[in-house]
Description:
The chain is an all-beta fold and 295 residues long. It has strands at 13-14, 32-37, 44-49, 56-60, 69-70, 76-81, 84-89, 96-100, 106-110, 116-121, 123-128, 138-139, 145-150, 156-165, 172-181, 187-190, 200-205, 211-216, 219-224, 230-232, 239-246, 252-259, 266-271, 280-285, 287-292. It holds the Pfam family PD40.
Amino acid sequence: MRAVPGILALSLAFVLVQAGPADATPAGPGGRILVLDDSAGGHGVVSVRARGGDVRSLGLHLPAYAYPDYSPDGRRVTYADSWSVYTVKADGTDRQWVLDGPYVPAHPRWSPDGTEVGFEAVDIWAGAVAAPAGRQVYTVTGRGSLTFDWSPDGRQIAVVQVWEVGDPWDPINARDIWIARSDGSMIARRLTDRAETWDPYRIAWSPNGRTLAVEALGDLWSIDVRTGAMTNLTATADVIESSPIWSPDGRLLAFGRQAAGATTPQVWLRPAQSRGDTGRGVGITGIPTSWHRGF
């Protein structure tokens, strides 16, 4: 492991709406969405059709940080539990250990080529899925990295990083988004610069590589990866939107929508770039964690 100069000591530890037949009423979005409901009496992890219905339980009752994710081919699902990262078949069977984190791992994400899994554990880490026992994970970013996602080509990551700004004798902990090489070799650039007024958390990179969908301040935001230009997509005072996930074709976002007074979010879909369309519910509670085009 090598140290990298700069504000983010970036080092990476890895183990690593489709239209239907032409008719008067176009079909809804295709594919399946993984949904996690960790509330008391919740359904745990299920797979649901993106257009709603056909709910299939994976038989997994996991904490929120487990954040299950479909492999690129859709055949397996990775998730975090206790000190380890595991994979199971898409139906929840055949659990296999992948790696142990240096700290409790959270929010694992498959690399786009399916060879590694990245995860959050104080830093961002990753490691090979298929490797000899005792394999080592490696760090992608330095301490203070909260959440991340891979670029579609796997060469970069977008990461939310906590850093100190302002008076060095009385600094403010700010959160911003950085774009970095996924091999941990260098810091590419800071994408946002909002200081204490900006509070990004969950983040998702669009399939075409041009846009980040970000959960921040109770709303969903769109950020241009090239310019850093930001758009508040929802701007809802009495509704909290969280955990954005892109549809495989990049046209829609799935997200958790929790109205004032509600105890559990609902899974909703909305156009990825429209500010006027509030979207619609899929008919299931919880937060979406992954969307695959198949089956």
